[in-house]
Every structure is written in structure tokens, then in C-alpha cells.
Automatic annotation (TrEMBL):
Organism in which the protein naturally occurs: Streptomyces anatolicus
Cofactors required: thiamine diphosphate
UniProt cross-references to SUPFAM superfamilies, sorted A to Z: Thiamin diphosphate-binding fold (THDP-binding), TK C-terminal domain-like
Matching Pfam families: Transket_pyr, Transketolase_C
Keyword Transmembrane helix appears in the UniProt entry: no
SMART domains to which the protein is assigned, alphabetical: Transket_pyr (SM00861)
Keywords of this entry: Oxidoreductase, Thiamine pyrophosphate
Domain Transketolase-like pyrimidine-binding: from-to ranges: 6-181
Top-level taxonomic group: Bacteria
Listed name of the protein: Alpha-ketoacid dehydrogenase subunit beta
Length: 326
């Protein structure tokens, strides 16, 4: 069957399996990705089927994992690295931003860096410290890195395929609290460009732009607003670097209002860049300032308080009401 209904985690697993089958140079590396199949079981069964030389259990050493992946890429491999949780990436940050991101430019284009770094990110799972962060802006700021995040199973499958095929490094943020949300995956489909935003719901009164875990919240907000006679367009950005500003502009020129939603802190977040660019591009179309909804400028709280921290339906709808009040 070409079309299957799969959870996001299984869609990524199937995509990794396809890549391993199609290209002997694809390798998977990370903590517990082999025998255990990953803490979220995203790599379940892959080591059993492809062996320990292609699905590699590594030491607990993120800097070493990424550094090894860079060396493998230099030798012609396409390593897919898992960082077990979002907050664990920082020991590898130096390798990512000073080596991985800059190698292509440093070599004047002669060296490719086809490395994918998978990072389960975001909150909503009741985890302890360092397990619920949204550090995507730190990587989107760094030239030389592509930064993407799927919100559904079909994108999870196809965007992983495209990330692995890319000759540039891709930071692939996986919305961990959506891992078991199911959706249809057509393995014979022709996917759109990796960094193109997609209209997830048509609307006329206001645009909600989001990516990863917040797309579902925005779709719920649009459904709730419809009951009050408001028509909200939901734009799934899919990519944080590069950002498809043309798609955002086209939507805003139609709706004349924009609210950007993400889990990461509002302060210097992705929404800040989008707000600035769209204000420049759409100044004479906007009927309200671009508003942002996100996390607070504070360390991620203990699990009992995370529902107060995470943007939810009420905070999104409050921003919608404020925008429409102008």
C-alpha cells in the first residue's frame, strides 16, 4: 500500500528505513538508537535489520557524535545523528556552529556536509530539566545550517528523505509530543520543496503562522474561531531557515493580519524575524501590528508548571482577538 496511516514517529522510522535501503552511505548514529531503538522508539528495528555498522550505538558524548559525523561526511557518508533530547545538544553546539555549518564555505564549495541532526524538541511530555526545550532559533541564526520541523506524518516522512538527500547540514527538529499523532503518508507522492510553507487551512480574516508542535494548536484555534464567525488561515512554515517569506507575505496580503506562534520564547524568537520582515514587506497591507505568541523569557519550568508556560488555545485566541480589535 502506497498510502498508510502512521504516527509521526513511525513515519520517521519508515523514512530512515527507506534511506538505509536506498543508499549504503547512509548511517544512523546516536545514544541508544540501536538495540533500544531510541527512547521514543523512532529507530526501532533498524539495527536488527541493517546491522551495527550502519545503525550505531554511540557513547554519551554529543560533541564526539557530531564530530564523528563530520568526519564521516568528509569521507562520503551521509550520517543521520540523533541527539536524544533537545537540551542535550549544547555539548555539541561548538562542533555544529564552528565546524559543520562552516565547512562548505571554508572549502570554497568543494566540500559537502550531508549531515542530518535529529533533535526531539519541545514540551508537553512532563519531563525533567533539559528534556523540553525549543532551541531552534540558536541554529536558525547560524549561516550554513538548514533548520526544519514537520508537523504531521506525511511531512515527517518526506522532509526526512529530503534532509538526508541534502548536501548541506540539516537540523531536523521533531515535535516529540506529537510523535504519536497519526496521519496519512503516501510513499509514492511527489513532495514539495523542503523549505516551502504550506497552507494547512484556508481563511480570510487573519493568518496564524506556526511550525512543528504549534500547528495543531493553531488548527484547533481556527476551528474554535470559526464558531464565532471568524475565518483564520493557518500557515505551516515547516522551515525556520530558510523561511518562506513569500508564502507568509501572500497570506498576509489576503488576510491583512498575522499572528506567529511557537513554543520557543517570544524574545528574539523566529516570530521576531517574521514580524520584522512582514512589517517591511506588507506595511501598506497590514491592518494590525504583527503579534507573537510563544514561551516566556525564562528557563523551562518543572513539569507541573509547563501547561502555564506552553502557548495553548486560549493564548492564541487572545492574540487573535487583540489583532482583530485594531
Amino acid at each position: 500500500m502506497a498510502v498508510q496511516k502512521l504516527p509521526i514517529a513511525k513515519a520517521i522510522n519508515e523514512s530512515l528505513r527507506t534511506a538505509l535501503e536506498n543508499d549504503p552511505k547512509v548511517l544512523i548514529m546516536g545514544e541508544d538508537v540501536g538495540k533500544l531503538g531510541g527512547v521514543f522508539r523512532v529507530t526501532d528495528g533498524l539495527q536488527k535489520d541493517f546491522g551495527e555498522e550502519r545503525v550505531i550505538d554511540t557513547p554519551l558524548a554529543e560533541s564526539g557524535i557530531v564530530g564523528t559525523a563530520i568526519g564521516l561526511a568528509l569521507r562520503g557518508y551521509r550520517p543521520v545523528v540523533e541527539i536524544q533530547f533537545d537540551g542535550f545538544v549544547f555539548p555539541a553546539y561548538d562542533q555544529i556552529v564552528t565546524q559543520l555549518a562552516k565547512m562548505h564555505a571554508r572549502a570554497l564549495g568543494k566540500i559537502k556536509m550531508p549531515v542530518v541532526i535529529r533533535i526531539p524538541y519541545g514540551g508537553g511530555i512532563g519531563a525533567v530539566e533539559h528534556h523540553s526545550e525549543s532551541p531552534e532559533t540558536l541554529f536558525a541564526h547560524v549561516a550554513g545550517l538548514k533548520v526544519v520541523s514537520p508537523s504531521n506524518s506525511a511531512d515527517a516522512y518526506w522532509m526526512m528523505q529530503q534532509a538526508i538527500q541534502s548536501d548541506d547540514p540539516v537540523i531536523f527538529f521533531e515535535p516529540k509530543r506529537r510523535y504519536w499523532d497519526k496521519g496519512e503518508v503516501d510513499k509514492e507522492a511527489i513532495p514539495g520543496p523542503l523549505h516551502k510553507a504550506v497552507v494547512a487551512r484556508e481563511g480570510t480574516d487573519l493568518t496564524l503562522a506556526a511550525y512543528g508542535p504549534m500547528v495543531k494548536v493553531c488548527l484547533e484555534a481556527a476551528a474554535a474561531a470559526e464558531e464565532e464567525g471568524k475565518s483564520l488561515e493557518v500557515l505551516d512554515l515547516r522551515s525556520m531557515s530558510p523561511i518562506d517569506f513569500d508564502a507568509v507575505q501572500a497570506s498576509v496580503e489576503k488576510t491583512r493580519r498575522l499572528v506567529v506562534v511557537h513554543e520557543a520564547p517570544v524574545f528574539l524568537g523566529t516570530g521576531a524575524e517574521i514580524a520584522a520582515r512582514i512589517t517591511e514587506r506588507c506595511f501598506y497591507h497590514l491592518e494590525a501590528p504583527v503579534l507573537r505568541v510563544g514561551g516566556y523569557h525564562a528557563p523551562y519550568p518543572p513539569a507541573r508548571l509547563e501547561e502555564e508556560y506552553l502557548p495553548g488555545l486560549d493564548r492564541v485566541l487572545d492574540a487573535v482577538d487583540r489583532s482583530l480589535a485594531y
